[in-house]
Structure formats: structure tokens, C-alpha cells
Design a protein that fits this description.
- The protein is α+β, with helices and mostly antiparallel strands.
């Protein structure tokens, strides 16, 4: 490159840019009201986009701390219809570990962390601690070295690794903790090490301690992952995982109903990466409409200011400035304004995130997201600000730099018709964005209302829940079943408890269990094999939650060990297997995995009752899943499933006071080492299932109001400026005898045209987008139609009133001044 040739030009450009920056700041200081209004409107749009991108960055882009080379990790699970992953069984994890050649190591962990009781070897009372059970190769696969001690070995059966922050808080960073024996839920474990600083595993749920599964682990749902061997591509490893799944399905036979095995590249949100990306993309699309409205508002104002600066641009042209030089100057001024809005937007983004954490409902697990400002967020905010300043500043700059020097110096600051049309186009764009946001907000609010009004099939009001985990309680590992009847009887005896029961999966929760398949009939080769939802419940479960028994009876205390196996099924399952028939007394073939014997087991059970359908953890999509309920007291059936180490108490209270303290006291009285893993009301669990609809409805509603405000500013600005430009025309009309009403009508006609065109475009786009969303996410929107005529009529009336209100002051100015004075000023 000939630097001597280009150096003077580059130096001149830099000097020009420096002068343009100084000139731009002087212009902004001279118009403080414009600067503040423009910067604030841009800050809202840029800040909202940056806030959502920060969350997406923490979930999808930022690598987790303490894990080496996350790009070579994969997630393994059961294939889901939306492309994501569900948990897989522990025995399937063992098969993958045994058969894989592409993965150097494979690990498994519990689906969720659980609150457990941790105490020293001599303490009687346990402190609550969030623990998660993992396999011995968990840390080895993640290549996460400990900060103290060591991680797990294959020979460890009762070992634990502490979280670094928990170790600092509760043990003051004492190295002597390593090697000590402590008790977790009464089970003695050895603290073998402390994790690396910042390490929190593969997901976003925080744990205080990691435990080994131990040799007593037989089966149950787990989350799994692995590390690809060096020299092997991720696609090759994922293809091998799918092949292993197909082989397992073939070996187990068609009747086993084993979900298809699949793998995906590693993500902090596991197999939900597409869902999270889709939701954040939808949220960013909503707030981008506000940014578009703000940019259109700034573009319209810039066009107005450029008209007022026509003489200045013409004078600069006459003095020798070319068009490119003028465009660079005007773009620099716009970039300064957008950069100011971007800096304010960064501060607003973090304020919005803190506000969201206060108003959103608490999640069932402790989530720890590092929402800090890193280079991804900074780059996004800078690119968004500068990109928007160029896109929405180039047209005003080109129009302003196109001034005819001779005509402008002679005629002053009259606006051309092209500039007027461009200003009107910006206003129409603002109105269309506002209408689109309001249409979508209406759809989201209707979906939220529909979900809240939908009958879940049970009565959540006045019901408290408490989760108790005894899965790692050493003295009760082999026989936990007698513990649960004792626990529930103590709860039922409390004077503030109206009714109480136990359930493995309470409705409205986030966990589910899949225990196997069912088929109608008593023949071992019965057809129509189906995999329903499963639950293990105690007596009075349906009465406590007020789930109707539409046929037969509820479980009773007589349904215990040694009596014939019985089940209660949901109405949906009865209709699927025996459409139009009575199912009471019919045999149901259950194919379940016996965790103790490590094989599938076929059992015939008699249907004694049919319960009403409920929308359990699928409240978000409004679907009722067919269910099979097993009686907890038939221990000869449920103990082989190894699924009763963790149960939830559901209790209906007599008064307004929460039953959480009562249930905690009962647990401590029975065993001081026990703590409640989680307490919440059933109504809170149900509301949590509708959180995506609530977030979308709230965000779109707020952004719609902001866009509406920007649109009103744009309508007023273009109408007022148009009246100012036509002041001479109006004065002549008044002088020639035109009535004031006629002049006012002319002003309102222009506003009406802008509002009508913007409404038509916004309603058309909103209808199309809403229809597409309601079809693609039909379950999410409960099958609602995107067309809501009352909402459309309300939107038309709203913007019609907005146009009238924005035209009142300009119209009064058009007829208030005397025509003789106006002509003299001209």
C-alpha cells in the first residue's frame, strides 16, 4: 500500500471527523429538549434489546466457568418432538457408557438439585443445603480440577465435593474440612474436595454440594452428557449416540416403549436450547419494534431539523464542501445522538434486569446467572447503536446534502415535497410498529387470561406443598415406605390441616416421571401399548386436591401390600384404551422397569377408579396428559421402582396461615435430620407454569405503551411542522374568505391520512404475525385465533383519538394568527 499517497487523505478525514464531533456536540447542547427526548427514546429501545440479549448471552453464548473446552461436550437424552432432549433412564446411561467409542467419558446427574439436611457427625440438627447427586466421572468428564482436595473416584460410594462459595461462607475457607465426615440426610459422607471457584456444573441451577450416586443407585431419570474424544467430530459422536439408542430399542423389543436416544451439542440449558433461543428471539423481536419506532421518530425529527438547516448546508456547498463531506458530517451528528442513547440504554438494561428479578415469581430451583457486562454485550450494544444510526440517518443525511445552493440561499428553508413524504413515511412506520405491538400484546394477554381461566382439573386454592427427600438417608434406604404413612398421619392430625396426602409428582410442578407403558386387556400380548404420565399417591390425594372421581372409587387403606394390585386411571386414558366403555374392574397391563431386578416387569392391575383429567406440569400448553396412579401403600409394587425416596406433601389448610412451618415441625419431630426441600402453595406452582405468557404479555404491553407515546410525538411533530410550512397558504385562504372550520379540516385530513395508512399496515402485519404464532405455537396460545374484533375496534378508536389529540394544537395555531401578520412575516 502506498502510505505516502493515502496518509494525507486519512489525516484530513480524521481532522474532519474530529471537527464534526465537536460540531455535533455543540448542536446537541443548543437543543437540550430534543437531545433529552431523542436520547431517552433511543435508550428505551436499545436498553430493552440489550437486557434480553444479556440474558441470552448468559444462557447460550457465555461458556460456563470451570469447565475445560465446552465445545467438545455433548448432551445426551431422550429425543423430544420439538428437537430438544428429555432425561434418560440411569440404565440407558450405563449402556451408553459401555458401548460408546467416540466419547472419552460419560457422566450422569440428577434432574434437579434437592434441598437436603447437612450436619456434622456430632450435631443433632441439620442445616439446609442444596445438593445434587452425580456419577463419579462427573468432574473428570468436565475436566474441572478441584481447588482443594480431589474429585470423585470410581471407588467412592459416600463422598461429597463442596461448592467453593459455600465452603467460603459456611466453613470460612478452612482446608481442614477436606477429609472430614459429615451427615447429609442422616447418611455419612466424606468431604473429599472443594470445587473450583465459579464452578456450578453444566447448567444454571446452583448447588452447594455434589454427592456420588453410590452403589445403591439402580434406575430413575437422569441428565447425561459426555466429552468427545480428540480427533473425532461432534457430529460423529452424536451419530454414534443415536445408533446406540436404535440398538437398545431393537434389543428390548417393540413393546418396551423406550424413548429414542439422541444427543445435541452442549448447552447450559441442556436440550432446551432451541426453546430458549426461540423465546429470547421472540422477546427481542417485540422490543425491536420499540427501537424501530424510536429510530423512526428520530429520523422524522432529523428530517425536520435538516429542513431548518437547508441554508447552512447550501452555504457549506457554496464554500466548496462536496456532498460526501456533508453526508459524513450529518451521519456523525446522528451517530453521537445514538451513541448517547446506547450508553443510557446500557444502564437501563441492567436496571430492567434487576427489576425483573424482583417482580417475576420465584423458580422452583435456585438459578444463578452471571448477567455481567462482557464483550458480547458491549459489542451488541455498540453495533446496535451504530447500525441503527446509519440505517435511520443515511436518508436524512442524503436529503440534506442534496440542497441546491442557489435556490436555498434565495428561498430560505422551504421544505421539498420529497422531504415531506419521507417525514410522513417515518410517522407511518411509527404508527405501524405501535399497532403491531398492541395487536401482539392483546394476543398474549388473551393467552394469559385463557390459561388462568382454564380449569386445571383440581382446586389449587388453599393448598400448600412441601417436598421431602429421603433418597440418601442411610438408615432408611432399604425401607422408606413405612416412613411416609407415619409422616402423613402426623400432618393430618394438625388442627390447621383440613386434608392431606402424598404424591410423587404434585400437579403444577416441573418434574415428571415415566415408569413404563400400559395396555388394555389381560393378555400378555395385548395391543395398543401406550406410555402415559405416572404418579404414586397416597389415600385422600384426589379428595385433598378436589380432583373428581368420575367412576369407581379412590384408593383406601385396604390397598396395601399383599392385596391385589389396583390402579386409578384418568378419564383421558380410559377413553383412549376403552372408548365408550366402562373400565371399572377391567385389567390393565403395566410394563414397568424393576430397578431392583434390573429388568422389565409385566404386572396386571385392576382399575378401581377413574379420576378427572388434570393439566399437571403441562399447564403452559393447556394439554391434559393421560395418567396412571399407583397406590403408595402397595409397597410390593412401588418399592421395586425406587421412586419413593422423594415425595411431596399436599395439604389443604383450614385458615389463611401457611402450613409450611407446621410441616417443617412435623418432619423435625419425626427425624431431626430432615429438612423440607421446597415449600410453596399449589397456586404459586400453577402460576409459575404460565410465566412465559405472563412475561410476553407484560413486556409487549409496556413496549406497546412506549411505542404509542413515540407515535403520538411523531404525529404531533409532523403535523405541527406541516402547519408551520403551510402557514402562508392558510393565511391566504383565510384572507380570501375561507372559514376557520375549513382550515381545521385540512389539518385533520392530513393527520387522518397518516393514522389510517399506519393503522392499515400495522393491522395487516399484526394479523399475519399473530396468525403465524397462533398456528406454530397453537398449544401455547390455547388455540386462540389471532383475529379479535373487539381488540381491533379498540385499536382503531385508540389511534383515531390519538390523531385527533395530536392535531388539536397545530390546528388551533393554523387559525389563531391573523392573516395579515402571517403574510407580513412571509
Amino acid at each position: 500500500v502506498d502510505t505516502a499517497r493515502y496518509a494525507p487523505r486519512l489525516t484530513r478525514w480524521m481532522e474532519d471527523a474530529w471537527r464534526d464531533v465537536h460540531h455535533g456536540f455543540r448542536l446537541l447542547r443548543r437543543a437540550p429538549l430534543f437531545t433529552a427526548t431523542a436520547a431517552l427514546s433511543l435508550a428505551i429501545g436499545i436498553g430493552a434489546n440489550t437486557a434480553i440479549f444479556t440474558v441470552a448471552n448468559a444462557l447460550l453464548l457465555r461458556p460456563p466457568t470451570g469447565i475445560a473446552d465446552p465445545g467438545s461436550l455433548v448432551d445426551i437424552g431422550s429425543a423430544r418432538g420439538d428437537g430438544g432432549l428429555n432425561p434418560l433412564s440411569y440404565r440407558t446411561y450405563l449402556e451408553v457408557t459401555r458401548r460408546t467409542a467416540s466419547l472419552s467419558s460419560v457422566f450422569a446427574q440428577d434432574m434437579f438439585p434437592h434441598v437436603m439436611g447437612l450436619s456434622t457427625a456430632v450435631a443433632d440438627v441439620a442445616d439446609p443445603v442444596v445438593g445434587r447427586s452425580v456419577t463419579s466421572d462427573f468432574f473428570r468428564t468436565l475436566e474441572s480440577p478441584p481447588s482443594r482436595g480431589r474429585t470423585f473416584l470410581d471407588s467412592d460410594d459416600a463422598a461429597a465435593v463442596l461448592d467453593y462459595d459455600y465452603w467460603k461462607r459456611h466453613f470460612d475457607g478452612d482446608d481442614r474440612v477436606v477429609g472430614q465426615t459429615m451427615r447429609i440426610n442422616g447418611r455419612g459422607v466424606v468431604i473429599v474436595g472443594v470445587a473450583a471457584p465459579g464452578f456450578q456444573g453444566t447448567g444454571i441451577q446452583r448447588s452447594d454440594v455434589w454427592l456420588t450416586f453410590g452403589r445403591t443407585r439402580l434406575d430413575g431419570p437422569v441428565l447425561a452428557g459426555g466429552r468427545v474424544r480428540p480427533g473425532i467430530s461432534t457430529d460423529t459422536a452424536l451419530a454414534e449416540v443415536r445408533t446406540i439408542g436404535e440398538t437398545l430399542n431393537h434389543e428390548r423389543g417393540a413393546g418396551a416403549q423406550v424413548p429414542r436416544l439422541n444427543g445435541l451439542p452442549f448447552s447450559r440449558v441442556g436440550g432446551n436450547k432451541k426453546i430458549v433461543a426461540g423465546l429470547t428471539g421472540l422477546l427481542m423481536g417485540l422490543v425491536s419494534l420499540v427501537l424501530l419506532a424510536a429510530c423512526a421518530n428520530i429520523g422524522g425529527i432529523q428530517m425536520t431539523r435538516s429542513t431548518a438547516r437547508t441554508r447552512e448546508m447550501a452555504l457549506r456547498t457554496a464554500l466548496g464542501a462536496n456532498r460526501a463531506r456533508l453526508v459524513r458530517q450529518l451521519l456523525t451528528e446522528t451517530a453521537i445522538l445514538f451513541a448517547l442513547g446506547g450508553m443510557l440504554g446500557l444502564g437501563l438494561a441492567f436496571a430492567l434486569m434487576r427489576l425483573a428479578t424482583m417482580v417475576l415469581p420465584a423458580l422452583p430451583a435456585r438459578v444463578d446467572l452471571d448477567l455481567t457486562l462482557d464483550w458480547h454485550v458491549l459489542a451488541f450494544a455498540v453495533c446496535l447503536s451504530l447500525g441503527a444510526s446509519f440505517v435511520f440517518g443515511i436518508l436524512p443525511a442524503l436529503k440534506s446534502a442534496k440542497a441546491d445552493a442557489a435556490a436555498a440561499l434565495k428561498d430560505g428553508t422551504r421544505s421539498s415535497s420529497s422531504r415531506t413524504r419521507l417525514r410522513s413515511a417515518f410517522v407511518i412506520g411509527q404508527i405501524a410498529c405501535s399497532v403491531l405491538l398492541i395487536v401482539l400484546a392483546t394476543l398474549f394477554v388473551r393467552a394469559l387470561r385463557q390459561g388462568g381461566a382454564a380449569d386445571p382439573g383440581f382446586d389449587p386454592q388453599g393448598v400448600d406443598m412441601a417436598l421431602i427427600d429421603v433418597s440418601v438417608m442411610g438408615p432408611r434406604t432399604d425401607d422408606t415406605s413405612p416412613f411416609w404413612p407415619t409422616m402423613i398421619e402426623h400432618v393430618r392430625q394438625q388442627p390447621t390441616v383440613e386434608a392431606a396426602s402424598l404424591a410423587r409428582v404434585p400437579p403444577g410442578g416441573w418434574e415428571g416421571i415415566g415408569l413404563g407403558s400400559v395396555a388394555a386387556g389381560d393378555a400378555m400380548n395385548a395391543g395398543d401399548v401406550f406410555s402415559p404420565g405416572w404418579n404414586i399417591v397416597d389415600t385422600d390425594y384426589f379428595a385433598t386436591l378436589r380432583i373428581p372421581i368420575v367412576g369407581g372409587r379412590d384408593f383406601s387403606t385396604n390397598d396395601r401390600t399383599g392385596t391385589p394390585s389396583v390402579v386409578v386411571i384418568s378419564k383421558a386414558l380410559a377413553q383412549r384404551l376403552w372408548p365408550g366403555q366402562s373400565v371399572i374392574g377391567k385389567p390393565l397391563r403395566l410394563t414397568m422397569f424393576n430397578a431392583r431386578a434390573q429388568r422389565d416387569e409385566v404386572r396386571l392391575s385392576t382399575i378401581v377408579g377413574v379420576a378427572g383429567d388434570i393439566r399437571s406440569s403441562s399447564l403452559i400448553d393447556g394439554l391434559a396428559q393421560p395418567y396412571v396412579y399407583l397406590p403408595l401403600r402397595q409397597t410390593d409394587v412401588v418399592d421395586s421402582l425406587q421412586m419413593t425416596g422423594q415425595m411431596s406433601i399436599v395439604a389443604r389448610r383450614r385458615g389463611p396461615a401457611s402450613l409450611a412451618p407446621v410441616m417443617a415441625t412435623v418432619a423435625q419431630d419425626i427425624d431431626p435430620r430432615l429438612v423440607l426441600s421446597r415449600t410453596e402453595t399449589l397456586a404459586e406452582a400453577v402460576a409459575l407454569g404460565l410465566m412465559p405468557q405472563r412475561v410476553l404479555a407484560t413486556l409487549s404491553g409496556v413496549m406497546g405503551l412506549v411505542a404509542l407515546l413515540l407515535a403520538s410525538m411523531g404525529i404531533y411533530g409532523v403535523t405541527a411542522y406541516s402547519v408551520a410550512l403551510r402557514r402562508r397558504e392558510f393565511s391566504i385562504r383565510l384572507a380570501l374568505g375561507a372559514s376557520r372550520t375549513r382550515v381545521v379540516q385540512m389539518v385533520f385530513r392530513q393527520t387522518t391520512m397518516l393514522v389510517t395508512v399506519g393503522l392499515a399496515i400495522g393491522l395487516a402485519i399484526g394479523g399475519g404475525v399473530g396468525q403465524a404464532l397462533s398456528v406454530i405455537f397453537a398449544a401455547f396460545f390455547y388455540g386462540l385465533s389471532a383475529v379479535d374484533w373487539p381488540a381491533i375496534l379498540g385499536t382503531v378508536m385508540l389511534f383515531g383519538g390519538l390523531g385527533v389529540a395530536a392535531s388539536v394544537i397545530p390546528a388551533s395555531r393554523a387559525v389563531r394568527a391573523g392573516w395579515s401578520r402571517a403574510l407580513q412575516e412571509e
